[in-house]
Amino acid sequence: MSYGQIAEILGNKRMSRQVGWALHVNPSPDTIPCYRVVNRFGGLSSAFAFGGEDVQRQLLEKEGVTFDQNGNVNSRHFI
């Protein structure tokens, strides 16, 4: 999902930055899989708090997520 999609589910689609902030300070990344959240284009977070975008990509690939030639999540399948 994207930050905006989560914000919309929570009631305000304009609060995607706050969703990003909340995930950045995630106190329990082992139980709250914040690495699954990408930007609206399916791009990875360069500020991924738990190891950078390379780690985020590795975690997503372990779950079977694929990426296009630009490094974005294949949104047709996953977003």
Structural class: mainly alpha
Percent range for helical residues? 25-40%
- Work out the helix count: 4
Mean pLDDT, to the nearest integer, reads 88
Number of strands: 0
Main pleated-sheet profile: none
Shape: globular
First-residue to last-residue Cα separation: 5 Å
Order of helices and strands: HHHH
Describe it.
There is one protein chain. This protein is mostly helical and 79 residues long. The chain has one domain (3-78). Helix content is 38%, strand content 0%. It has four helices and no strands. The termini are close together. The mean pLDDT is 88.
Can you give keywords for this protein?
mainly alpha, 79 residues, 38% helix, 0% strand
Write the layout of secondary structure elements.
Blueprint: H1 3-9, H2 16-24, H3 53-62, H4 75-78
Q: Short summary of the structure?
A:
The chain has 79 residues and is an all-alpha fold. It is 38% helix and 0% strand.
